Amino acid sequence: MDLRRVHKHTIDLESVNRAILLTEYFRTTAVKVQTAVSQEQLSELHRNIYLNLPQRFTTAEGIGIAESYGMKEHAFKMFLKRHIGTLFRKENHGEYSK
Fold first, then answer.
1. pTM assigned to the model
2. Which domain of life is it from (predicted)?
């Protein structure tokens, strides 16, 4: 077996790890840009609620904050659902992060 041919068809572990790091960098940067753009497009009410949510929060905590600004529970849940992947990330059932 010709070793030169084998090396042309294999990828070393270092290359894989660097590709993963590069991909993660671009994904993180894209999320930051999407978050910034999404925040700019929010109404004043939504922006105030977003800014007053802790970095990690439960649905119940978010509802409490939203209600303190006059937003109904259903409206907050829809706001949360619409912005998963941009403003919010679902960590676990009923747990989110910004």
1. 0.63
2. Bacteria
